[in-house]
Amino acid sequence: MNEVFPLRTVSQPFINYSYIIFDPRSRASLLVDPSWELGTIVNKLNELQADLKGILLTHSHYDHVNLVAQLTAIYHCDVFISVKEIEDYGFKCNNLKGVNDYEVLSFEGITVTCLHTPGHSSGSMCFLLSESIFTGDTVFIEGCGSCSSQGGSAEDMFKSIQRLKSIIAPHVRVYPGHSFGSKVGEPFNNLFNQNIYFQIDSMKQFIDFRMRPNQSNLFKFC
Q1: Among candidate residues 93, 127, 90, the one with its CA nearest the CA of residue 107
Q2: Cβ–Cβ under 8 Å, residues 16 and 178
């Protein structure tokens, strides 16, 4: 079974989570949304004696991609992001590979299914493994990403969350791009109790609530 190593990385005011996915038999690894602390990531890869096969990007916002250039220069690995994100935002980097909804990537013991989940950005993507899902800014343990930036859509976010609710097994652990008080890696089933956006089944109610005026903070979810 693949192992997941969460890395909390900081550049105030940003606090992100990057993740190393590691296969202990082959030592193959993938890196999800590398941000802020190059030394933290490189040191962990070295500690694991990991063979970095690729970088998975959930979307192209700067706080999720800012170490891509440095890491590709070091490891010469491929970088995977949705075709839609490339087309709509013009994202570029070395060794870039566009991927589509339901495309499957395989790397020496690691198999990843790409799921297009727009809402936070038009090309946002979640990456699903047998025991884990990496959700970027689509789904947090406590809520969902903002829908007001370029390409964002509360309607699309509602559809994406409904889709995830219908296809993700209850035991799959959720690894988002940020934490707002909850521990990353909660089982998907727990979000039905902890995440208010999982409890809204009406699209209109969802949109009205996510886009409600006078929110003191887009990341205070109730």
Answers
A1: 127
A2: yes
